[in-house]
Amino acid sequence: MTIKDTPEEWEVRATDTPFKGNKTSVRTDDVVMPGGSVVRRDYQVHPGSVAVLALDDEGRVLVLRQYRHPVRQKLWEIPAGLLDVPGENPLHAAQRELYEEAHVKAETWRVLTDVYTTPGGCDEAIRIFLARDLSPVEGERFEVEDEEADMELARVPLDELVSGVLAGDLHNNCLVVGVLSLVAARQGAGLDALRPAEAPWPARPFEA
Fold first, then answer.
1. Domain Nudix hydrolase, which positions (predicted)?
2. Structure confidence by residue, pLDDT tens digits, 115-163
3. Under CATH, which number does the domain 49-196 receive?
4. Where are the domains positioned within the chain?
5. 148 an active-site residue?
6. Which residue in the list 88, 143, 148, 198 is annotated as catalytic?
7. In the beta sheet, which residues pair with residue 129?
């Protein structure tokens, strides 16, 4: 048996969108089950996101501390953002987020991993990139607002982040998945064996 996720779509008898927000919405589908019964499934419709695990030459990861209202916590995270434009190239979006949130650019990009954040209740797909060969961006910083105006920036050794994840001190999904994926990649075929930065992404198709 091949252990690989595969596309599949069960019959939907009816669909409704009872809530539409600024960036996301809630959809209700009446889905036909294998036994023939029809059940209602509510889920959040999300445009998708990108995140960047930026690794400097000293083995430190660039992280941000930001307030997240739904969980009432300030979380340490890696730079991330929405795919605001349908069909947007995720690499370009990731480069933009790294610049806007950290005022940093990177010369070397790879796909670290692709994940669905909460597939039982949301269709959000996130592509996490590995960015290396970092350098500051020249010119003025991007003007931030709202939660981002209170954001803190740090560079933390990878081992320290791994310890924080396993101790239950760090909870942001992109940071957790990104950090542990980086460790696995290093122990496996190596970072240069990761997928190229513009590898296909069936969950959020894009034009190169």
1. 44-178
2. 999 999 999 999 999 999 999 998 776 666 656 668 899 999 999 999 9
3. 3.90.79.10
4. 12-45, 49-196
5. yes
6. 148
7. 52, 111
